[in-house]
Design brief:
Its main location: membrane. By secondary structure, this protein is an alpha+beta fold. The chain is built from 18 helices and 59 strands. Helices cover 15% and strands 35% of the residues. A hairpin with a 3-residue loop joins strand 15 and strand 16.
Length: 1099
């Protein structure tokens, strides 16, 4: 008895102690007194938190770029994110600290670097030569707004156009401004009386780098001579310009306009366009102008050696095509193809064989960035088919409503799911390889299978292979196809409890070993699925309807208003504040016209063909009761060894035998307590409308009380109403406080009562008021008897209490190892069995993978229970609380999981205040407590989950999954596992211009930009115009950049030497960078020789 008192004192100390160390010391002192035989191997040094990878479509994309030599695609977003894609399996996520929208991206082609321009008028240089790209330099413009950037191929000078119409020039090596500026008034001079508007386009003539084409929004285009610092030609048009593109010969360019027209201009004829095209305009008779169309937002002009050029554009549809989907138009010779897209077009790029702008472009594909998708179109095949997208970008095909994560699954699961999923693939894709093929895969250091399951708003469920930090869809299951769909809104039954997405998935319960799957949907429906490789047709869909009724007086809401599925955590759902209700109400008794016994959805009554994969075993629906809609399901569990599924909501709990298709248990939460109810609530009566199952559970200690024997007070309504209104004003309804929802369910084989000498199958039930109740399951023998004899469900009388809603329960054996729930191994059910198989089946016992399966009478177990506020470890069968940890005082736990890590187990928790914590088991010592991210929206709360081996994930945006690890070992190996974006590739040869072109001119003219833009020629830029910010890339970034721009550095050094400039500091930096880049010195030397050779040709 003394020992018990000591424990109480220590528990009290732990509860009030705010510091984790004091708590841990008390815990260890307790552990010294007992349970010393369990060796805990996990220590704080085993834990470290870091993000691993982000999967899915970049949320709210805003910019697109492609490196045609490295074959890497970059996408920027409105939240400042940067996603880089190489070959399938090579992906990378980066984030600009400011969170400002990315307005433009420009690769330094084949240099392993990228420039991003943001809406907050900053430019950033990213080094892509390291596995986690970092910013090397940033430049913040103070007085001007950036609108357009252009970086010519193999140049280190970036042209930056602004809202005021000026162009500044940035050296991308040093990220400093040149003193050379093109002012808008100098560019247009007297050609226009008003300001020409912001810069919308900058590009150099493909055949003459000294000529810069500048497009102003108002419709003016200027060809600027960089050397003479004046305009050669000015082209004016009435309509605003959206984009400009060159013909590769540099004699023509094309503009797209706001009235849906394209104008083609000859460079030397500035007075009027050579040709005006309205791709989607109706040609009117009498030579009148076509009707105006919507703006053409972008145009590209790409040439081919063998045939007509391609003109590719987005927008430009006529205004009378209301409701038409966004289109990409491909004009090739006389043919015009209009390709409809599912979402609006953000940007597109044409992928070409050459990076040189002065050569035939030879386009082979178009990459189209849509608002919610990425599409690649094959230009080389007739009909322009799309490529099959190998990236996992369809997570959001229907909004994700829940997800579960399973690491270390059975090895045969992924092949099985892949084989049934392969049949679901669409046909008609391009036959060619996916063209974005850059980068290299990382080393695979994890060998265990991982599966992510996502549930969606349309009722679909997707299984993903998530092994080794990749993601690939395996199989998709449509749960909605079991229900009748209403054709129009008038047709819809008025039994819906949700306005939209009636099939949305809320909870997924999956047993990987037996492959049994159970889902709970938003319309209070549960579907049980069995996995099969055979196609079957269900003549009749097995179905059960369950009346789950709330058993206590609804004082303030007698009309059955729907309550939220779970009380909002942390809003003071303190059990002590519950006011006992002793008088039931007649407010919801049945009367004419009230909906009764109707489910929310209608199950199809025609035969249902079921493909290989998951096939329906049973559909369970909660029904309306006397005008009250069924409440949404708050917890769910399935057990393949027992053949049972159980689910609960704020009304009560129901258990179903899915083998015999019968309801075993159907009780209000209060009835689970019987006479042990600490709140002294009484069930409502009479209850003649209830299903007569589970009546034996009504009273635990005093034998069965028949529901019909209970009576009610005729004056109860008056008393209850006046009583509830005297309560504190902060509580709007007694209903919300007194409804106790089922929040956790766990099947297991354990000790159910204090006097038990051996473990037996049972169900542990946790509620939102912090109560844990135990129900004993008496199962018939296996084989045929299991289908003939009933399962007997009886109460145990065991009640345990914690502070806050119960979230998770698990069981440990004497050695401290996890005791997983019993399961049945998977077998094919749709194949007839021979006699031997049947005999084996009769003898077979359910598998319980406990390390100590034959438990002696003296051996005990430990129940681990985690609630929103605390965790407890309870010794069984004695039911003594041996360890207790108050996880949080001021916040609440959103997700708690008992997980395996480094051959041991721990409790991992994610709190609403953003903290991720882990605790040892069984002693609940704090091992990790890191502030990770605040709960900014319910999406994170709904999707966060931990799994084995230190893995976790959540939905970081509506379209993306963020994976993270809390394992120090994975953090250490992560660098090796990540793919490499940059791979050394030789830059293609420049186009051969031919002898006569070189001799007599007419070929591409090069320009010594250093001579024009360098400090000696143009002076220093105004200091107040922009400020340089060194990047956080660190030494690794410098090393990467050194090898990246080594060719440019060598050339710059030669040019400076020739002009006798003092190199001083730059020389030292160059030497250091060249030293760190010795692997690329040969490549740099060849580039330098090529450059010298080019110069010789020009004289």
């Amino acid at each position: 008895m003394r020992k018990f008192n000591i424990r109480k004192v220590l528990d009290g100390l732990t509860a009030v102690s705010s510091s984790a160390s004091a708590s841990a010391a008390a815990q260890q002192q307790q552990a010294g007194n007992r349970e010393s035989e369990i060796q805990e191997t996990l220590q704080s040094e085993h834990f470290q938190l870091c993000k691993t990878v982000r999967h899915g479509f970049p949320y709210q994309p805003s910019a697109l770029a492609f490196d045609p030599v490295q074959k890497i695609l970059a996408i920027g977003t409105q939240t400042g994110a940067l996603r880089l894609f190489g070959r399938p399996g090579v992906e990378c996520y980066c984030q600009h600290d400011s969170g400002a929208a990315v307005i433009q991206l420009q690769f330094l082609i084949n240099e392993g670097a990228l420039v991003s321009a943001l809406a907050d008028d900053t430019l950033h240089l990213w080094n892509l030569r390291q596995k986690r790209p970092a910013i090397l330099h940033s430049l913040k413009f103070n007085r001007e707004r950036i609108t357009f950037c252009h970086l010519p191929f193999q140049s280190k000078w970036l042209y930056v156009g602004t809202e005021r119409g000026n162009i500044h020039i940035v050296n991308v090596e040093s990220f400093t401004l040149s003193g050379y500026v093109i002012m808008w008034n100098k560019a247009i001079e007297l050609s226009s009386k008003s300001h020409p508007g912001p810069i919308v386009h900058i590009s150099d003539n493909p055949m003459d780098e000294g000529k810069l084409l500048i497009g102003f929004e108002s419709g003016t285009v200027v060809l600027w001579d960089l050397k003479s610092k004046k305009a050669d030609y000015r082209y004016t048009h009435d309509e605003a310009i959206h984009s400009v593109a060159w013909h590769h010969e540099g004699k023509q360019f094309i503009c797209s306009h706001s009235d849906g027209t394209l104008t083609i201009w000859n460079v030397k004829s500035p007075t009027k366009p050579f040709q005006t095209i309205t791709p989607h305009g109706k040609q009117l008779k009498d030579g009148k102008k076509p009707e105006p169309c919507k703006p053409i937002l972008k145009v590209e002009y790409k040439t081919t050696r063998a045939g007509e050029p391609f003109i590719i554009l987005s927008g430009g549809l006529s205004y009378d095509t209301v409701g038409r989907r966004p289109c990409l138009t491909v004009m090739h010779g006389k043919s015009t193809a209009v390709l409809e897209m599912d979402y609006s077009i953000v940007d597109f790029l044409t992928l070409c064989e050459t990076p040189y702008p002065n050569d035939f472009q030879e386009p082979y594909a178009v990459v189209v960035l849509l608002e919610k998708d990425l599409v690649l179109i094959d230009l080389a095949q007739n009909g322009y088919p799309i490529f099959e997208n190998p990236y996992p970008l369809t997570i959001h095909e229907s909004p994700v409503t829940c997800c579960e994560y399973f690491a270390d699954c059975p090895v045969d699961l992924i092949p099985a799911l892949y084989s049934v999923g392969a049949r679901q693939k669409r046909q008609g894709y391009s036959k060619k390889e996916w063209p974005i093929s850059g980068g290299n895969w990382g080393l695979i250091t994890q060998s265990y299978p991982e599966i992510i399951i996502t549930g969606h708003a349309d009722g679909s469920i997707k299984f993903w292979d998530a092994s080794a930090i990749t993601l690939q869809v395996l199989y998709k299951l449509k749960t909605a196809k079991v229900f009748e769909k209403s054709r129009n809104k008038d047709d819809r039954p008025n039994t819906d409890i949700v306005d939209e997405d009636p099939y949305a998935i809320q909870i997924i319960s999956w047993c990987p070993e037996s492959r049994m799957l159970c889902i709970a949907g938003v319309s209070a429906h549960v579907i049980i699925y069995r996995f099969s490789k055979q196609e079957v047709t269900a003549e009749v869909i097995p179905m059960l309807e369950v009346r789950l009724l709330y058993e206590i007086n609804d004082v303030e809401t007698p009309d059955g208003d729907q309550v939220p599925p779970l009380p909002t955590p942390g809003t003071g759902s303190n059990p002590q504040s519950i006011v006992p209700q002793s008088h039931p109400s007649t407010s919801s008794s049945s009367s004419d016209g009230l909906r009764d016994n109707v489910p929310c959805l209608k199950v199809k009554n025609s035969p249902l063909k079921q493909s290989p994969g998951y096939q329906i075993e049973l559909v369970i629906q909660l029904v309306w009761v006397s005008g009250e809609p069924p409440q949404q399901i708050t917890s769910l569990a399935v057990n393949s060894a027992y053949g049972l599924v159980v689910f609960g909501n704020c009304n009560g709990i129901a258990m179903v035998d899915y083998l015999q298709k019968t309801v075993l248990l159907n009780l209000g939460t209060i009835e689970l307590y019987g006479s042990n109810d600490p709140y002294r609530r009484e069930p409502r009566s009479p209850r003649k409308t209830r299903q007569p199952s589970g009546a034996g559970l009504c009273d635990i200690n005093e034998g069965t009380v028949v529901p019909e024997d209970r009576c009610k007070s005729p004056t109860s309504d008056v008393k209850d109403n006046s009583f509830s209104r005297s309560r504190s004003s902060s509580v709007t309804s007694i209903d919300k406080e007194s409804r106790e929802a089922i929040s956790a369910l766990h099947f297991c084989e354990t000790f159910t009562r204090k006097a038990d000498t051996s473990p037996s199958p049972c169900l542990w039930v946790g509620t939102t008021l912090g109560t844990v109740l135990v129900i004993v399951l008496n199962l018939p023998p296996g084989g045929e008897q299991r289908l003939l004899q009933p399962v007997i469900v009886s109460p145990s009388g065991t009640i345990l209490r914690l502070k806050g809603a119960i979230l998770r329960m698990a069981f440990l054996d004497t050695t401290g190892s996890l005791v997983p729930p019993a399961h049945e191994p998977w077998r094919e059910h749709n194949v007839p069995e021979d006699k031997d198989e049947k005999d084996k089946l009769k003898k077979r016992r359910p598998v319980s993978v406990s390390p100590s399966s034959s438990q002696e009478i003296s051996e005990n177990q430990y129940a681990v229970i985690c609630s929103e506020k605390q965790a407890k470890v309870i010794s069984l069968p004695s039911q003594n609380c041996i360890y207790k940890q108050n996880i949080t005082e001021t916040s609440f736990v959103l997700r708690g999981d008992i997980v395996a890590l480094s051959n041991s187990i721990c409790l991992a928790c994610f709190c609403a205040n953003g903290h991720i914590m882990t605790f040892s088991l069984p002693s609940l010592r704090p091992l990790l407590d890191v502030y990770y991210l605040p709960l900014t929206n319910m999406r994170i709360a709904r999707t966060f989950c931990f799994t084995n081996n230190g893995q976790a994930l959540y939905l970081v945006s509506p379209t993306e999954i963020q994976r993270l690890t809390y394992s120090q070992e994975i953090c250490e190996n992560l660098q090796e596992m990540l793919g490499e974006l940059f791979t050394p590739v030789e830059t293609p040869e420049a186009p051969n211009r031919g002898f006569f072109k070189g001799l007599f001119g007419g070929g591409a003219q090069s320009l010594d930009r250093e001579e024009l833009f360098g400090e000696s020629a143009s002076g220093k830029a105004s200091r107040s115009l922009a400020q340089h910010i060194p990047g956080p890339g660190g030494i690794e970034g410098v090393k990467g950049a050194a090898s990246g721009v080594v060719g440019e550095l060598a050339r710059a050094r030669l040019a400076l030497d020739e002009r006798g400039q003092k190199l001083g500091e730059l020389e030292e930096k160059t030497a250091a960078m060249l030293y760190s880049a010795d692997s690329f010195s040969k490549h740099a030397h060849e580039m330098m020789l090529k450059y010298k050779d080019k110069k010789w040709y020009q004289f």
